[in-house]
Amino acid sequence: MARILDGKQIAADIQQEVRERTTAFEASGIHFQLTVVLVGDHPASATYVRNKQRTAEKVGLKNTLIHLPGDVSEDTLLAEIDRLNADTEVDGILVQLPLPSHISEQVVIERIAPEKDVDGFHPMNAGKNFVGLSAVWPCTPAGIMEMFEREQIDVAGKHAVVVGRSNIVGKPMAMMLLAANATVTLCHSRTQDLAALTRTADIVVAAVGQPGLITAAHVKPGAVVVDVGMNRVDGKLMGDVAFEEVAPIAGAITPVPGGVGPLTVAMLMKNTVRLGCARRHLS
Ligand SMILES: Nc1nc(=O)c2c([nH]1)NC[C@@H]1CN(c3ccc(C(=O)N[C@@H](CCC(=O)O)C(=O)O)cc3)C=[N+]21
């Protein structure tokens, strides 16, 4: 039976460290602020945003929610981002995705000042990361790497198979693993014989949004299995991994919930402090 990687506990450890840093800065009158922009009333988004705000509160970050109606124009949203870019009190800006279809996510992401881009989604930051200049990495892959480190899962020289090629998770995950000296295979919806590839993996990261896609037949005994999936099935949260059948085979596995999700939120806090320090020339 696999070791269960307790994302919630690791996230709590990261949050504790962030709390210690914000407390130290508070003593010198410095307060970091995360601003979340939510457009519309997508129920899942509202839950995630509430989670982020609660966590920000806990770690001593000022947090502001800008909630705009679902029919807000792209221009109004862009003007709001311009205002936040210019606000010297704001350290991090997160525009919750997905956005309504009448708004271009790419245009919005590019409008966020790169030095306030806590998600690491801006092409400037993605590009820097691509060439090995360390910018802020997207929170989900960053949280997974942080978990590997804290759980002493050494990725150097290992074969890591990432399933999913989004700009938010799959692509940056592959880049981070590569930077940490893993041998990386990036799979996606058009990959032929996925199971044959994942069966050769020492580490599998599933980030496709298909409940139960990764089965026992996809996993080599002893492999580390990381489940990024957040699928709501009959009101229940399910990952991309068929946990019940994979857990007995894997060497280590993340649960859903309580795995990657809390790590993502914790890294958002860590990234906010990092950007706040960089912008204020603090170490
Ligand atoms: N600009 C932007 N940045 C994001 O980082 C971003 C985003 N947009 N849009 C949506 C996705 C999704 N995401 C999650 C974060 C935490 C949990 C999380 O904490 N999940 C809990 C369970 C939550 C529940 O019960 O619904 C867990 O896995 O234990 C889930 C999902 C961040 N995202």
Provide the fold topology:
Layout: E1 3-4, H1 7-26, E2 33-39, H2 43-59, E3 62-68, H3 74-86, E4 92-95, H4 105-111, H5 123-130, H6 139-150, E5 159-163, H7 170-179, E6 183-187, H8 194-198, E7 203-206, E8 224-227, E9 231-233, E10 236-238, H9 243-246, E11 252-253, H10 260-279
Parallel strand pairs: 1-11, 2-3, 2-4, 5-6, 5-7, 7-8, 8-11
Antiparallel strand pairs: 9-10
Helix pairs in contact: 1-10, 2-10, 6-7, 6-10
Would you write up a description of this structure?
With 283 residues, this protein is α/β, with parallel strands linked by helices. It folds into two domains: 85 residues, Leucine Dehydrogenase, chain A, domain 1 (Rossmann fold, 3-Layer(aba) Sandwich), CATH 3.40.50; 123 residues, 3-Layer(aba) Sandwich (Rossmann fold). It is 41% helix and 16% strand. It has ten helices and eleven strands. The strands form three sheets. A six-stranded parallel sheet has the order 1-11-8-7-5-6. Helix 2 crosses helix 10, helix 6 packs parallel to helix 7 and helix 6 packs across helix 10. The mean pLDDT is 97. The chain binds 5,10-Methenyltetrahydrofolate. The site of 5,10-Methenyltetrahydrofolate has 18 residues, from helix 2, strand 4 and helix 10.
Largest sheet: 6 strands, parallel
User: N-to-C terminal Cα separation, in Å?
Assistant: 43 Å
Q: What would CATH call the homologous superfamily of the largest domain?
A: NAD(P)-binding Rossmann-like Domain
* Number of strand segments: 11
Number of helices: 10
Write down the CATH topology of the largest domain: Rossmann fold
Let me know the average pLDDT: 97
Anisotropy-based shape: globular
**Order of the strands making up the biggest sheet:** 1-11-8-7-5-6
